[in-house]
Design the sequence.
């Protein structure tokens, strides 16, 4: 019997949250330190697990554990990760300490400090769970429960219009969840029909032979939930509001990690369980993704509020991720996973730098209120520029690897789509550089005059992000090592192979 | 005697009670009408028990009586409380629980 | 020696195909190829991350890394010269970078004759400009950053020319774009500088899309993006595919090299400090497009259409730049126009195919030297004139700045193509080659040379000759030795680079294994073409000299012809872009923001409002009358009974 590593990993932040609740209310400093300590412990544990992960293993999942939960319905508490899950768990455990450090002074007006950090830790547990669940019912439960901490993080600790944003986010997500529940029950019934005994076990569900019509219906149920979460065009309008009202730390977790559950769900559940339906709907989803890329970028260009700008830019990037998944090439799918990781990092960079800036300028969100930061706070402006470059996928940074592979995968299958999506590269540069230009260059604006540069704590929060972005951009081999096998298995289940080059063979070996 | 007549009687009593609840304003009268409905139900239960030849209906009738007694206690207390505060036993007066 | 004027005169026919073979393993002096890039990269990292504590010695470190790289580049050159001409491609693989399902792009470098000359140009001219910047940027509070950015640029540019596959080249390609962005916007507090930087990056990005798509198409066609693997089978692809690849690469080249129709950013890029203009926007980065085309010669050789488009773009830009250069009063903008025009020459030459590749690179090298010289000279003048850039405010600077004057003069004669200065050799070779392929292209090259004579003489006369038109508080003086020494070196380079490369270095023979060469005799003796060109140049020069020697108005005259007015406005490129691209984008954006806020979010909020509204209406039924609730209950019960009766009874 091996140790249930994933459960232990998930429990670490949960214990942290409980410890926080037991701490005295007045000692905010201690509360933050304890929260940080637990999140770092989880990160260290993830690194340890990452080293244990066997990239060459033939097993679909590793660190597997399974206990019966509701045997009558074939529901079990089963965990396990493949390369994709591992990468996303690592993303979650990396970003939580960063956000705790960055959000150190987010709560200073008498609202409960304890609650804020406890919610973040609880959220971390749920995120680890949702990426490592191998029982679809468990996944669904965690998928829904995750909404609760985020709801409170937005609704209690957000900006002036937080109630509207939080409720909009919650209801939007719940609608998706409800449809997904219906599809989940449908899937269960299919499994009862085919296996005699119903099950929610992922591997068994993949093995089902569902008839195309049923697939198409059930697919939609899951897809809508994932498309809302991701969010894909046109299910995106909750995101700008949520991003604008949430604290930067919350936004990082929400957009950087939580929304990835949507795209993760597409590659993990939709493709293998509903292969026929996936191919059937692929053109529609690809169209949605491409519209999202262009539309998101253009609307981002037209925003006057910086956080809303980032939200639309994320929507554009999610278009890339979904595109990569539904073109059914190993380049596209692996690119999507890399892009998920990279987007998490670049979201963290861009929201946190903007957050530090806004905190200094009295919380103003309007881009027009800023200017000339570079002259007043050069270090902050430097990070701001880095975040901008990471967002526009400069080669050498992680996002470029993801974006290029997605475009390559798309182009190899649908040339025209690849060309249209490539226009997104230019538009991204337009809005990202416009943001940097308005905020950081020119003469300092009155709101910016005299603001202090970044402090040690803030730099400490940003440095890991920057380093990871560069390292994964220059040497992404570790990610490829774990993700490639998982992607290959997925595409094998779907039954598609990469397009063959017109001349010569793949890899150029003549 | 034909047990069906008892059922018909129960229906008549129930209808009288219903109409009483709907048309009367005085809380006490409405209350009495409710009692009438409960007892009409009891009568039906007993009549059916007799027709089926088992005791189930009679057992339920006892339950109903207990519930009715409890209801009388609570209901009268409410009516008295309302009367004390409003100097009226009309059930149309207290309409605060609206939209 | 093949390919020289002498061979052409002798009527020899040359047809050498490029040598494509696997790279030799990098050993010996070549085993530290990566250090070439690592040096300036480390310099950039230390300077940019080290913060204020590196302020004092940082700039010297920046100079050191580039100089060391230049020294190593010379060592590499000696190493390459020691190998046989067919075996001068050396490769070094560091690690696999991207590998997914058959797509592999390693971090690997390739040093061959073509990269070698670029490495030399980049490091040597780069080192000189770094040294010059020590003086030019002496009083800038941010000069540590400046040197950091310059180092970053050198590293990226070296990566660009040393990469052994298209994807890695792309990293360098955008890396130089980033460095260019940072350096154009170096004086960020000036809104015009920040805007110019953004414009350069965005227009470059349009070109980058071309490169990105080209890489994808190459991979989809050949299954690899490594240069020698692609070139080995390039001929087997269908011509239409190759044409598309060629056109996409041309788009990339047009973006980076400021070729029509993506030329508008270059003039604005002059907002950057002058050493930047010299290094990035004259000598090296803007020539990357030419490198890309020549590097991909195996692809272009198989597609006449793409080559023709390259040729046409080159010719258009050549004239566009020359005309703009003739009308601008800002010395840097005029030089920028001239850069466009000269790169137009190179692109024209590259568009001639195997006939012209070698000469494109030859001209690129001589141009790198004399244009850096011109810009640094202009910088020296600007420095002396308290940042005045308007040539109408110059005049008679010869006496005050003798060294600058002499080196500028050498470079001016070089760019005009006066024998035996370096530009003469390279430009005449291009014109000869052009006549071999198309008389129209040849004549165009000659005419543009005439315009070059005009605008350079105009610039030279307005700046150094004539009467002083200085503002009152200006007291021009010669710059410090740290600035004049690079000027002297480049001045000597402007005189001799052409001859040295051609006769002593055998540039043509050196490059031919990479580029191939085709040559057929011209109908007339080459001397005829040379004389005609020279006459045109001198005519242009004479007109300019007569016109600008004496009376130059301090304010630009407004009663000018249409062409001058258009040229002063850079041929209305901004206006055209504005109408065609910028304004439509704004309109679409505004429309989409409206669609999003009122349309899509409107639907979402509409559904919410509908639910809330229905609730509001329905709650009116909750009247608070207990008896009406009772009635509702009775009604409901009766309804249920009726339904039951209807359904069950019959």
Sequence:
């Amino acid at each position: 019997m091996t140790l249930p590593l994933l459960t232990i990993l998930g429990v670490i932040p949960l214990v942290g949250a409980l410890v926080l609740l037991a701490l005295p209310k007045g000692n905010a400093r201690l509360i933050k330190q304890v929260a940080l300590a637990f999140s770092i412990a989880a990160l260290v544990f993830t690194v340890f697990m990452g080293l244990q992960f066997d990239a060459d293993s033939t097993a679909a999942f590793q660190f597997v554990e399974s206990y019966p939960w509701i045997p009558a319905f074939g529901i079990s508490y089963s965990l396990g990760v493949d390369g994709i899950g591992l990468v996303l768990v690592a993303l979650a455990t990396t970003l939580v300490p960063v956000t705790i450090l960055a959000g150190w002074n987010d709560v200073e007006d008498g609202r409960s400090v304890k609650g804020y950090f406890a919610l973040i830790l609880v959220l971390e547990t749920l995120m680890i769970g949702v990426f490592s669940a191998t029982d679809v019912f468990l996944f669904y439960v965690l998928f829904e429960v995750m909404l609760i901490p985020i709801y409170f993080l937005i609704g209690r600790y957000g900006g002036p219009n937080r109630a509207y944003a939080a409720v909009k986010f919650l209801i939007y997500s719940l609608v998706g969840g409800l449809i997904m529940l219906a599809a989940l029950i449908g899937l269960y019934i299919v499994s009862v029909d085919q296996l005699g005994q119903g099950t929610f076990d992922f591997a068994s569900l993949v093995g089902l032979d569902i008839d195309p019509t049923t697939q198409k219906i059930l697919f939609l149920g899951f897809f809508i939930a994932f498309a809302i979460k991701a969010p894909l065009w046109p299910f995106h309008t909750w995101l700008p509001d949520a991003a604008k009202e949430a604290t930067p730390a919350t936004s990082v977790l929400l957009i950087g990690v939580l929304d990835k559950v949507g795209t993760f769900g597409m590659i993990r559940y939709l493709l293998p369980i509903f292969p026929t339906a996936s191919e059937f709907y692929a053109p529609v989803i690809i169209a949605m993704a491409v519209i999202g890329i262009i539309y998101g970028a253009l609307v981002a260009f037209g925003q006057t509020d910086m956080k809303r700008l980032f939200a639309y830019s994320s929507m554009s990037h999610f278009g890339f991720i979904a595109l990569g998944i539904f073109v059914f090439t190993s380049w596209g799918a692996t690119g999507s996973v890399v892009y998920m990781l990279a987007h998490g990092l670049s979201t963290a960079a861009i929201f946190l730098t903007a957050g530090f800036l806004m905190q200094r300028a009295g919380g103003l969100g309007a881009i027009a209120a800023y200017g000339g930061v570079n002259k007043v706070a050069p270090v902050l402006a430097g990070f701001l520029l880095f975040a901008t470059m990471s967002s526009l996928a400069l080669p050498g940074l992680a996002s470029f690897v993801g974006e290029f592979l997605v475009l390559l995968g798309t182009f190899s299958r649908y040339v025209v789509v690849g060309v249209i999506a490539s226009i997104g590269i230019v538009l991204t540069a337009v809005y990202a550089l416009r943001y940097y230009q308005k905020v950081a260059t020119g003469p300092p604006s009155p709101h910016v005059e005299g603001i202090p540069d970044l402090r040690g704590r803030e730099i400490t929060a940003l440095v890991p992000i920057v380093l990871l972005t560069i390292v994964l951009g220059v040497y992404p081999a570790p990610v490829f090592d774990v993700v490639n096998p998982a992607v290959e298995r997925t595409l094998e289940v779907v039954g598609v192979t990469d397009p063959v080059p017109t001349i010569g063979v793949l890899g150029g070996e003549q | 005697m034909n047990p069906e007549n008892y059922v018909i009687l129960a229906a008549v009593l129930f209808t009288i009670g219903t109409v009483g609840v709907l048309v009367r304003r005085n809380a006490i009268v409405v209350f009495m009408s409710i009692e009438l409905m409960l007892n009409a139900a009891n009568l039906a239960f007993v009549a059916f028990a007799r027709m089926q030849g088992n005791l189930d209906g009679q057992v339920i009738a006892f339950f109903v009586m207990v519930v009715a007694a409890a209801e009388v206690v609570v209901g009268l207390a409410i009516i008295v409380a309302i009367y004390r505060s409003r100097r009226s036993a009309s059930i149309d007066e207290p309409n605060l629980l609206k939209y | 020696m093949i390919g020289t004027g002498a061979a052409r005169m002798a009527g020899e026919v040359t047809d050498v195909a490029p040598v494509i073979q696997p790279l030799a393993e990098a050993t010996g002096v070549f085993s530290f190829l990566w250090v070439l890039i690592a040096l300036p990269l480390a310099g950039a990292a230390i300077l940019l991350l080290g913060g204020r504590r590196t302020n004092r010695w940082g700039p010297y470190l920046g100079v050191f890394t580039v100089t060391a790289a230049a020294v190593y580049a010379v060592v590499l050159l000696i190493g390459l010269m020691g190998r046989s001409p067919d075996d001068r491609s050396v490769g070094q693989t560091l690690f696999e970078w991207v590998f997914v399902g058959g797509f592999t792009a390693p971090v690997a470098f390739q040093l061959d004759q073509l990269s070698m000359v670029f490495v030399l140009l980049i490091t040597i001219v780069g080192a000189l400009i770094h040294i010059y910047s020590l003086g030019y940027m002496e009083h800038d509070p941010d000069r540590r950053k400046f040197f950091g950015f310059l180092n970053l640029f050198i590293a990226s540019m070296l990566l660009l020319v040393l990469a052994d596959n298209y994807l890695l080249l792309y990293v360098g390609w955008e890396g130089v774009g980033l460095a260019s962005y940072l350096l154009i916007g170096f004086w960020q507090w000036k809104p015009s500088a920040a805007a110019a930087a953004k414009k350069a990056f965005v227009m470059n990005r349009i070109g980058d899309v071309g490169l990105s798509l080209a890489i994808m198409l190459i991979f989809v066609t050949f299954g690899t993006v490594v240069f020698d693997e692609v070139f080995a089978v390039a001929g087997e692809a269908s011509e239409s595919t190759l044409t598309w690849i060629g056109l996409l690469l041309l788009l990339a080249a047009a973006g980076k090299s400021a070729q029509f129709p993506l030329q508008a950013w270059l003039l604005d890029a002059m907002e950057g400090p002058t050493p930047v203009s010299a290094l990035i926007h004259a000598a090296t980065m803007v020539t990357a497009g030419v490198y890309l085309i020549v590097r991909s010669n195996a692809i272009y050789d198989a597609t006449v259409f793409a080559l023709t488009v390259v040729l046409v773009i080159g010719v258009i830009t050549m004239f566009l730049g020359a005309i703009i250069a003739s009308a601008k009063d800002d010395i840097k903008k005029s030089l920028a126009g001239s850069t466009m025009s000269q790169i137009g020459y190179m692109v024209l030459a590259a568009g001639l195919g195997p006939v012209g590749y070698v000469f494109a690179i030859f001209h690129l090298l001589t141009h790198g030297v004399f244009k850096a010289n011109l810009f640094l000279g202009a910088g020296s003048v600007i420095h002396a004139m308290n940042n005045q850039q308007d040539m109408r405010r110059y005049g008679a600077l010869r006496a005050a700045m003798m060294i600058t004057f002499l080196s500028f003069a050498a470079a001016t004669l070089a760019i005009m193509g006066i024998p035996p200065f370096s530009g003469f050799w390279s430009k005449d070779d291009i014109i000869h080659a052009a006549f071999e392929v198309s008389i129209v292209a040849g004549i165009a090259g000659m005419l543009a040379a005439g315009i070059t004579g005009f605008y350079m003489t105009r610039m030279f006369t307005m700046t150094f000759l004539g009467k002083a038109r200085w503002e009152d508080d200006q007291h021009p003086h010669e710059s410090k030795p740290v600035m004049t020494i690079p000027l002297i070196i480049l001045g000597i380079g402007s005189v001799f680079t052409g001859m040295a490369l051609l006769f002593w270095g055998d540039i043509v023979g050196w490059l031919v294994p990479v580029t191939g060469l085709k040559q057929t005799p011209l109908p007339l003796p080459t001397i005829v073409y040379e004389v005609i060109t020279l006459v045109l140049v001198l005519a242009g020069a004479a007109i300019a000299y007569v016109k600008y020697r004496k009376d130059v108005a301090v304010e630009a005259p407004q009663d000018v012809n249409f062409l001058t007015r258009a040229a002063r406005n850079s041929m209305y490129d901004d206006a055209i872009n504005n109408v065609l691209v910028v304004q439509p984008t704004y309109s679409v954006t505004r429309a989409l923001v409206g669609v999003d806020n009122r349309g899509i979010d409107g639907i979402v909020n509409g559904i919410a409002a509908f639910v809330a509204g229905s609730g509001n209406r329905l709650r009116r039924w909750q009247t608070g009358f207990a008896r009406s609730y009772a009635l509702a209950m009775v009604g409901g019960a009766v309804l249920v009974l009726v339904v039951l009766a209807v359904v069950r009874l019959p």
